[in-house]
Each structure stands twice: as structure tokens, then as C-alpha cells.
Amino acid sequence: xxxxxxxxxxxxxxxxxxxxxxxxxxxxxxxxxxxxxxxxxxxxxxxxxxxxxxxxxxxxxxxxxxxxxxxxxxxxxxxxxxxxxxxxxxxxxxxxxxxxxxxxxxxxxxxxxxxxxxxxxxxxxxxxxxxxxxxxxxxxxxxxxxxxxxxxxxxxxxxxxxxxxxxxxxxxxxxxxxxxxxxxxxxxxxxxxxxxx
Length: 197
Fold this sequence. Notes:
It is a single chain. The protein has 197 residues and is an all-alpha fold. The termini are far apart. Mean pLDDT is 74; it is low at 145-166 and 187-197. The protein is elongated. The chain has helices at 14-27, 59-87, 92-95, 104-115, 122-153, 165-186.
């Protein structure tokens, strides 16, 4: 990625910084992370109703897990690249308020909500609008299905730039988030969600 400017402490150069970040992400072919068309691969245990404790038994199932693992590693690496591109030029005062945000899209929304929306080329807008329409349709279908299930069961619906101390700290935080994400992806799929039940 080309050199990116640094965002000032008060965000006066947000438009230039944000535009440079968007262009760098687009140049690397990673815009899908910001328009929600690039999603994390689903672990095979979560597919086809396999459930908790599923382990691959056949060669086909082991191959399916191997393909997933490769795709997940690629997604995780690309996700980390987008994260780093977004935060690499952000002052620590702003970065520290974003530490709880893991996904690049959440970080980007945070910055746009704080400093203003960055104009996008028409091609990006079309992709964003398509994803929003898809999300609305999915939510509507899910709501209808949940409502039907509730009625059926009588329950309620439920840059590259010189590395300085600040960027080293940011990279360490991103690496820690990356490592946590990688470890989560390597656990059996359903055990990650056990605490939710």
C-alpha cells in the first residue's frame, strides 16, 4: 500500500485521510470488507445441522475442513490488512477509543460517525446499496421465520510508512485481535457459542 497521511488529533484532515484509506483498501482489492460483501467462511460444523461435537469422519469431510481452514486463514489475513490500513495513521487518542471494535467495518463506521462520511465513487455506492438491500431482505425473512416459529411453538419471538512507537502498539493490538480471532476459528465451532445458551 502506498503512503497514507496521518489523521490529525482533531480530525481536521479527515476527508483526505479517509479518502486515502478507501483508495488504498480498494487498490488492494479489499473493499468487500467495507461494503459487507466479504464475509468470514463458515466452519463446516455449522453447516448442514451437524451440531456441537461434530468431527469430520470421512475423507470428504476432512477435505471440507481443510478447504475451510485455508479460506478462513486467507480471510483473517485480509481482514487484518484492512484493519491496519484503517488505523495505521490514527492518533493514539482516537485509536484508544476504538479498541473495543474488532471488525474493520465497525472501525470505519465509528470514524465516519465521528468525523463525517467520506464520498464514495458510484461503483462503491452501488455495492453498498446492494448489500443493504440484501441485509434488509435477510432481516425481513428472518423476522417472518421467527414470527412463524413463535406462532408454531407458542413462545415469544426472540502503508506503508515508517514504524514508530504508536504504530507498533497498534500493530500489537491488531495482532492480539488477529490471534484471538484465529484461536476462535480453530476451536470446534459450537463450543464458541456455548456461553450464549
